[in-house]
């Protein structure tokens, strides 16, 4: 599975961006992670299962929305009310199995990763 992420850029605090990630093959769970300069990679959001169960990090819940277009094998991350602390390289990831609960938060459950797209939020 190959992943192509897009949609990053520079935005002012309070602004919005939508990230997209197209997968070349079938996906079961799809997620977004991010890594800020000098920090470890962290979970942002995931979607999995036929019901499209969603999972969010506490820091983005209520501001970010993950969704999929199954016909296009594409996952989106709509980001609203962006804050400077959201600045990071955002990576999309795909798992070969469905995840649930805390399993969706674990990067080890995603076998395929995109190249990353930079999101910069200015204050």
Give your account of this protein's structure.
This protein is mostly beta strands. It is 0% helix and 50% strand. The protein is built from no helices and 11 strands. The protein has strands at 3-6, 9-12, 17-23, 29-35, 42-48, 53-56, 64-69, 74-79, 88-95, 112-113, 117-122. The strands form 2 sheets. Strands 2, 4, 5, 6, 9, 10 and 11 form a 7-stranded mixed sheet that branches. The chain starts with a strand and ends with a strand. The model has no long low-confidence stretch (mean pLDDT 94).
Feature tags:
four-stranded antiparallel sheet; mainly beta; 11 strands; 123 residues; globular
Task: Write a brief structural summary.
The chain is mostly beta strands.
Mean pLDDT: 94
Helix content: under 10%
Tally of DSSP helical segments: 0
- Indicate the structural class: mainly beta
Task: Give me the secondary-structure topology.
Blueprint: E1 3-6, E2 9-12, E3 17-23, E4 29-35, E5 42-48, E6 53-56, E7 64-69, E8 74-79, E9 88-95, E10 112-113, E11 117-122
Parallel strand pairs: 2-11
Antiparallel strand pairs: 1-3, 3-8, 4-5, 4-9, 5-6, 7-8, 9-10, 9-11
